[in-house]
Amino acid sequence: MHFPWTEELALSSFKEACGTWEEDYDSLVTPLIEDEQPSYILYRLDSKNTSGYEWLLISWSPDNSAVRQKMLYASTKATLKQEFGSGQIKEELHATTPDDVTLSGFRRHKRAAGAPAPLTSAEEELAELRRSEVGVGVSIDSRQTLSGVAFPLTDNAWKAIEGLAAQKYDYVQLRIDLNEEKIHLADAGNVSIDKLSQKIPLDCARYHLYNFKHTHEGDYLETVVFIYSMPGYSCSIKERMLYSSCKAPLLDSIETQIGLPIIKKLEIDCGEELTEAFLQDEIHPKKNLHRPKFAKPKGPPNRGAKRLTRPQESTGNV
């Protein structure tokens, strides 16, 4: 079907069925398309519903056709479906190249339409985590909390955090064992701020606790900072998901059970960020002391000069 110059739908061609719809498809449909000329093609399928045979509606709109014609056909499609009977149209295909109109092109369209929608990064990580539960036996549901997944701390990890709270250490690094489902101690000791960046692994995620000793406005301060390092997508989806999910329960255990207050929580992807100036800015953000004064709004434009009125003197007799 196409539009003649009077801009009404008109039948331009009609073919009888010979075999099944798949057998007849390429021989009947592909000869109907014209270069630079949009059209509608209604192709009868072999399936039926309560209204009779079901149909495939092909909207042929080549890329090199005039913009006006494309707009005209796009705006008329709903009317065509209503007049023909939308209940009888089972499938729809929008084609812009001759290959789209072929039977193989229609099958590609069907496969694409039936494929699941693309996942977001969070959905992809969750799906990968669920798949991995079967392989390694990660029973997430049994230890799931309102804010994440609670993996237990090993004795060594627990003692190291207590050592930091008692000022025995100023640095503790923790790692998750994905198979044991536990949080282990990776490193503990005393680290100066200029060496802290060297403690951040480049190929795996880690949790870090650091007692940042510094001065601010003349006062000596010791501030415990929690750092979650994740070096981008060099880690597996499962590792990223578990470190992200275990963070909140771990922080809750450190603060409520061990009693170590954490003043600042940071997330980084590389150790280069961890400088003294960076930590200072994060813990003591600079205040903006230069606040702009309120500007009095201007009056309406073109209101003219003010007018002075005088009372007129009475010239008549009372």
TrEMBL record:
GO term, biological process aspect, one: positive regulation of neuron projection development
Ranges where the ADF-H domain occurs: 1-111, 148-284
Cellular component terms (Gene Ontology): actin filament; cell cortex; myofibril
PROSITE patterns reported for this sequence: ADF_H
InterPro entries: ADF-H, ADF-H/Gelsolin-like_dom_sf, Twinfilin
One MF annotation (Gene Ontology) recorded for this entry: actin monomer binding
Subcellular location(s) per record: Cytoplasm, Cell cortex; Cytoplasm, Cytoskeleton
Entry keyword set: Actin-binding, Cytoplasm, Cytoskeleton, Repeat
Region Disordered, residue ranges: 289-318
Self-association and partners: Interacts with G-actin; ADP-actin form.
Protein family membership: Belongs to the actin-binding proteins ADF family. Twinfilin subfamily.
UniProt function note: Actin-binding protein involved in motile and morphological processes. Inhibits actin polymerization, likely by sequestering G-actin.
Name of the protein described by the UniProt record: Twinfilin
Origin species: Cryptotermes secundus
Lineage: Eukaryota, Metazoa, Ecdysozoa, Arthropoda, Hexapoda
